[in-house]
Amino acid sequence: MASSAGGLPILDFAIRNPERVSAMILSSTCSVPHSLPGLWNLIRLPLVGEAARLFLSLSLIRKNLVGAFADQQKVTQEDVEAYLQPLLRSGSWTVNLRTERCTNPTFVEQHLKEIRCPVLIIWGQEDAWHPVAMTEAFCRQLPKAEVEILSRCGHLPHEERPDCFNQRALSFIERNVK
User: Fold this and answer.
1) Would you list the domain boundaries of the chain?
2) Per-residue pLDDT reduced to its tens digit, 99-132
3) CA neighbor of 85 nearest in space, from 52, 28, 72, 77
4) Which of 123, 126, 131, 144 has its CA at 20 to 30 Å from residue 37's CA atom?
5) Interval 39-83: pLDDT, tens
6) Is the dihedral of CA 162, 167, 170, 172 positive or negative?
7) Is domain 2-176 given the CATH code 3.10.180.10 in the classification?
8) Which pTM was predicted?
């Protein structure tokens, strides 16, 4: 199970190790390289990514988190702090950068059709970062994809509509994981 950019390493792993993946759940994940927000592409660059950590702040995290929700009133100060704290832990930023840099979105896109396991894709209808229209092209490349579009939901369905997300995920697991 992965969300957003976290889906790229999972897809890469599934392509390279098909015998080790029986099913996947992806939330607002897209494989198309140009779909990555501009800032995300910059962070992948040497030195730029390391320097970006210096600019992490509650206001920057709040701005990004608010933009990820369809109902922006749901974002609390506690949510913002919960997102920022792991990024400030020693070594966590380095791990995030390494993960981003070792995953090649172009490779993933070129090999998506090789993924043969069932894949549940859950997407928010009001996702401002990856518009819901992207799911169609993405799913055409995945032979066993199921898509669930959640209304009144942005880029983080598992957070904005957790009960609905969990219901869909559990149903998929019951049908596809032995």
Assistant:
1) 2-176
2) 878 888 889 989 999 999 999 999 999 998 888 8
3) 77
4) 144
5) 667 777 888 888 877 777 778 888 888 889 999 999 998 988 888
6) negative
7) no
8) 0.85
